[in-house]
Amino acid sequence: MVTAPSTGSLPVADWVDPRLLRSDPYPIYARLRQEAPVAAVPAINKVLLTSFAGCVYAEQHPEVFSSVVEGANLNRALGGVSLIRKNDPEHATERAAVNPTLRPSQVTQVWSDRFRRNTEQALDVLAAAGDRADLNRDFARPLAAKNLMDLVGIRDVPVETFARWSADFIAGAGNVLDDAEIWARCTSSRVEAESAVDTSLAYLQRHPDESMISLFVAAGMPVESIRANILLTISGGVNEPQHMITAMVYLLSQHPERRPASLDAGAWRRVFDEAVRLYTPIAMVTRQTVRDVVLEGAAIPAGSQIGIMLASANRDPAVYDAPDDFEPDRTERRHLGFGAGTHLCAGKWVAEASVAGIGVPMLYERFPAIRPDPIGDVHWEGFAFRGITRFPARLA
Amino acid sequence: MVKVTLVQADGSSAVVSVEPGQSLMRAAVLAGVPGIVAECGGQAMCATCHVYVREDHLDALPVMGDEEEEMLEVVASERRPGSRLSCQLVGLADDVVGDVPPSQI
Ligand code: HEM
Ligand code: FES
Is the pTM of this model over 0.80? Predict the structure, then answer.
């Protein structure tokens, strides 16, 4: 991999069909990796990087692959520029404000008890749904939303409303086809969310705590930036843990012999990481090149929008044996499901604790037989953000 | 500028030059030293830039901050007396020798 002046050309993958990317992206990634791991994809107007090496290279060279992206859907969805769309040093200053509450020891000391309480409540909701239970709607989604409400410091909002904001922001951020109805939903959720952030902000100014809003306030961050960063966190912090709860149960119901003993924390973590690798919920992160660059022999012009395909890197046969298999004990433990480099997911430890440490083990403790309902249909959806949207479940 | 020798489990080693104001992690990553994963890019958030600094070189190190202390609790290879996060090693007072742990993840 060189970054010399451009000499080669840029392959064009005009065969990529965006509808297939939404329904079954993995064969498309496999073909891209094989034929053109750096390729312009006209259907979505981006240059896609699909090999592990190419994705890592882009993540680790922010001076070329900038997070400042023109016309970014994410900025439009959030109504402002959040830290994920900034480069260091501006990005680092904003992240440094919240990192302290997101490190593992703080997660254990401050947040784990709340996550446990929230999980107990969510399990009661699931139990009440009985025969009509949907693991996504009745457990994963409300649990992920309540955990995140506590973490960011928003109260007095129904959990269902908060979960809807997250889904609407994600839909806006991934609105590659510019659907007007999606933008309308996104805008109305944004107005509601901003007003909730403002309410919390006023309260937390007088009663500081460990929540993210409170730490942003203490760091003296301007209100517009606090709003954008909290809305960013609401987008990524609900959908992704939600998708990983359902993905873990989906995988373990296909491989019941791999279910860890309830107290084997290390084994639960390995199942979680393997689920993040196989069903990478943030499939794509976006960058823009600030100059011409040659990557894996392909010449990418300055000003190109880049899709770093984490979901493809995580199944690269150059890195993983039997990459499409579920193998929690595989020797290669590294994956790109949380990104890499300075934008590495801020909520990595929170997600691991709330999903792998608490949420899913407690679910199996209460409902050891939980599985997909054989008559229902587990439904997957999404390209840039992908996960299970319907999971009819049998509790016993 | 100081020189840091990083020794791998198989006995091979690399010498990296660390500029003033640069972290040992950054210098090691730029030099392509295997085993310094540095997933979070130096924010003391990932604990994948762990090194064992040899005992007779500990005096050359900056004092450990709270974040580093916290993150050393979750390193993948066992924590030992010379354990440090290389992204927090800025401003080394002298040349240093350290070992790269067997795993970072
Ligand atoms: C399994 C669950 C999760 C996955 C797979 C995930 C994945 C990711 C990925 C891939 C990125 C982008 C990294 C990049 O651009 O290189 C990211 C960024 C981010 N995530 Fe997560 N995430 C998860 C849960 C959470 C949670 C629970 C929070 C709550 C705090 C969160 C907050 C953030 C924030 C604030 C960023 C922006 C970081 C930055 O730009 O510095 N995420 N996440
Ligand atoms: S690079 Fe992540 S802790 Fe040092």
Answer: yes
